[in-house]
């Protein structure tokens, strides 16, 4: 097999597979200069052979040119975005833009003040996109829903996007953009009951697919959501490789995780704490 290794590896989104090859190239130079041990040189050759073994697996699409836009707005929930971003950015050749709703490229702070640097402004992104992605939050989400500029951008991108997606209360933003009418969808449990206000059909699942609308439930469901998109774009074996890369084999140390499986005293109190958030989202549907 012959191929241009560097062109294959140096596209955006090569975190999983590029690193071993780039290490091999460095090792080759070091060997020529006598700066690497025979054992490390042999290990690098083993790494290269294993990479090509992975490429031979039936149904795996190692390289693509997907165009992905992930919305950043003040007050977003970081894990809603970071979980899917890991999987999207690990797709070799994919271009992932973090698109700010702000007027400049200053870091955007999450609801818990984790700031993430955007790569583009709304006006700098042109479709068609393979994935249009919107994370959730609470008050920050409500502010975006009331921002006509952001909603108009989402609506425009959705017209040509291959997949229109969200995690957590990001589905409220899709609903405000008029994208969930008659669609099966999910959201964070704290806002799930509001989905019908936006014409959606609520489904109690971690990932819900209805045509090209793909929604994930709350926060950690973004990991399952991200793997679902990778499987759709690159095949299940590629997604399996990335799941292993992420060592995603959860063993929660406490019970719960849903309203139905959490101690009722905890679940009822937590559900009540989201009453004002739900009402904000309902008011924005009017």
UniProtKB/TrEMBL annotation:
It comes from the Bacteria. Residues 67-231 form the DJ-1/PfpI domain. The keyword Signal applies. Pfam families: DJ-1_PfpI (PF01965). This is DJ-1/PfpI family protein. Keywords: Signal. Residues 1-23 form the signal peptide.
